[in-house]
Design a protein that fits this description.
The protein has about 325 residues and is mainly alpha-helical. Helices cover about 70% and strands about 0% of the residues.
Length: about 325
């Protein structure tokens, strides 16, 4: 197990460096923005570029970048919407909004997805199962931004139950702020509910038809006892890591949903760093490294969680 963890960590570091290096090289192949685009601060921009080694050969620039960012933790100064500000401080400032919205989404979506999946499995091949399975297939197939437009149209503009955009401010746990998050929470949650319900239904259905549950029934256990004591426990082995991965992903956010509902999070920040009139390459590099690291770390944690959930599973074992 220890060797497996070390191997996965080394592979993670290697993949992380490869992806970040590719992003760096591709950005350097783009034409450099004239300092005149930044108005009165053009002399300051030129001084910063010189200090960051922008006029040096590419390999030397890459060495400076690695030592300055990945080792030193200095990701530079914003050259876009947040001109002159440290990109790391802007990133930290935007993180709470993303975490809170996605945390509310998980609290809403995970229990509902599990309950629908369990109910569909217990009502296999009945009208309840067909109804839930049909709805799940529809919600899995439709992109989240389509839900966002429908939620905005029906709940915000027609019924006027919620505000179409998230309220500005940092009081994320107040009721007024929460009500403005509800449209985004619903838009993010529909896909999670559908995916989790489908996966739970498939796993629980397979477990309910296994031989050891039939044996338990012949020994006198009721259907409810076999379902709660054995079926649910064993079906959760592959489902729990999926839920864990969803919770790890709450800090990554949703770029499209944050843009639609004007959520001041890291997802919207990522879009702005690319689409603004003056692209913010320093911000783009920081967020690219962040999203890459979140994906790699969540993959390792999900894989390792299997052995903790079920001691019979041994990662990296040849037998």
């Amino acid at each position: 197990m220890f060797k497996y963890v070390i191997k996965r960590l080394l592979l993670m570091v290697m993949v992380f460096f490869i992806i970040v290096s590719m992003c760096f090289i591709l950005i350097k192949l783009l034409p450099n923005k004239p300092a005149e685009q930044f108005g009165k601060d053009k002399e300051l921009i030129e001084m910063r570029r010189e200090a960051l080694g922008y006029n040096k050969p590419l390999l030397e620039q890459y060495a400076i970048f690695v030592s300055r960012t990945l080792i030193g933790g200095n990701w530079g100064i914003s050259e876009g919407k947040y001109l002159g500000r440290d990109v790391w401080s802007v990133f930290i400032e935007k993180m709470p909004a993303t975490v809170v919205v996605n945390l509310y989404t998980m609290i809403f979506a995970v229990p509902l997805g599990l309950l629908l999946g369990i109910y569909a499995a217990l009502k296999k091949n009945k009208w309840q199962d067909h109804l839930i399975s049909t709805g799940v297939m529809v919600f899995v197939s439709v992109p989240s931004y389509v839900y966002a437009f429908l939620v905005q149209y029906f709940l915000c503009f027609k019924l006027k139950w919620f505000a179409p955009l998230m309220k500005e401010g940092t009081d994320f746990f107040s009721w007024n702020m929460f009500t403005t998050m509800v449209p985004a929470i619903l838009s993010l949650g529909f896909g999670t509910i559908a995916g989790l319900a489908r996966y739970t239904r498939a796993e629980l259905t397979e477990v309910l038809t296994s031989d050891y549950l039939l044996l338990a029934r012949t020994k006198g256990l009721s259907r409810a006892q076999t379902t709660v004591r054995h079926a649910l426990r064993n079906s959760m082995v592959p489902i729990f890591p999926m839920i864990l991965g969803e919770f790890i992903g709450i800090i990554s956010g949703s770029m499209i949903i944050e843009q639609i509902f004007s959520i001041p999070g890291v997802g919207r920040l990522y879009i702005e760093s690319i689409t603004s009139a003056t692209p913010d390459y320093n911000m783009f590099m920081l967020l690219s490294a962040f999203y890459t690291l979140i994906g790699l770390v969540s993959g390792i944690i999900v894989d390792l969680s299997y052995s903790f959930i079920d001691p019979r599973i041994r990662m990296g074992s040849k037998k």
